[in-house]
């Protein structure tokens, strides 16, 4: 009887984990995208972190930085945080919350989809966000993060 309980427990755990594992890689690689007005072609990971942590408010030419993000639970947002920023989404959210509660900053502009992200980046001067490679087109420019 105990063998069957263990087997049932293992099957139950796998049935819960497999969708999560499969969901993580169901999209193209995530890249940083900017409005064509942004002159930066390459940005270090620290520069990207400063921008998405809302610690950098202007570009080198003085243009205001406008940051766009997807909802915290979006798989592309999670991949962006983990693979590009090298932090967990909840850590980024904590930074934004601390900025708001201390009165020293604001949060990024949240969009609902990759299509909306691309559209908002393309028509907002100084905009930065992230897209999957298959959503990048001529209306936005990809930034290399070495």
Summarize the structure.
The protein has 146 residues and is an alpha/beta fold. Helix content is 45%, strand content 14%. The N and C termini lie far apart (55 Å).
Order of helices and strands: HEHEHHEHEE
**Roughly what percent helix?**
40-55%
Oligomer: single chain
Low-confidence residue ranges: 17-24
For the largest beta-sheet, the strand count, sense and barrel status come to: 5 strands, mixed
Outline:
globular
In the CATH scheme, the class would be Alpha Beta
Mean pLDDT reading: 88
The count of DSSP E runs of length 2 or more, i.e. the number of strands, is 5
Radius of gyration: 18 Å
The largest sheet has its strands arranged as 3-2-4-1-5
Question: Overview of this structure, please?
Answer:
With 146 residues, the protein is α/β, with parallel strands linked by helices. The chain has one domain (28-143): 3-Layer(aba) Sandwich (D-Maltodextrin-Binding Protein, domain 2), CATH 3.40.190. The chain has helices spanning 2-24, 45-52, 75-85, 89-102, 114-123; strands spanning 30-34, 66-69, 109-110, 127-132, 141-143. Strands 3-2-4-1-5 form a five-stranded mixed beta sheet. The protein is globular and about 70 Å long. The model is unreliable at 17-24 (pLDDT under 50).
What keywords describe this structure?
single chain, alpha/beta, D-Maltodextrin-Binding Protein, domain 2, five-stranded mixed β-sheet, 5 helices, 14% strand
Give the helix/strand layout.
Layout: H1 2-24, E1 30-34, H2 45-52, E2 66-69, H3 75-85, H4 89-102, E3 109-110, H5 114-123, E4 127-132, E5 141-143
Parallel strand pairs: 2-3, 2-4
Antiparallel strand pairs: 1-4, 1-5
């Amino acid at each position: 009887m105990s063998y069957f309980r263990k087997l049932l427990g293992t099957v139950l755990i796998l049935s819960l984990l497999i969708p999560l594992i499969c969901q993580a890689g169901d999209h193209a690689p995530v890249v940083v995208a900017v409005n064509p007005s942004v002159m930066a072609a390459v940005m270090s990971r620290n520069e990207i972190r400063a921008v998405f942590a809302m610690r950098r408010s202007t570009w080198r030419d003085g243009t205001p930085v406008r940051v766009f993000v997807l909802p915290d639970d979006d798989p592309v947002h999670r991949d962006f945080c983990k693979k590009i920023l090298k932090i967990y989404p909840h850590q980024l959210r904590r930074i934004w919350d601390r900025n708001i509660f201390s009165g020293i900053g604001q949060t990024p502009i949240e969009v609902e989809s990759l299509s909306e992200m691309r559209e908002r980046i393309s028509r907002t001067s100084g905009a930065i966000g992230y897209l999957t490679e298959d959503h990048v087109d001529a209306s936005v420019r990809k930034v290399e993060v070495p």
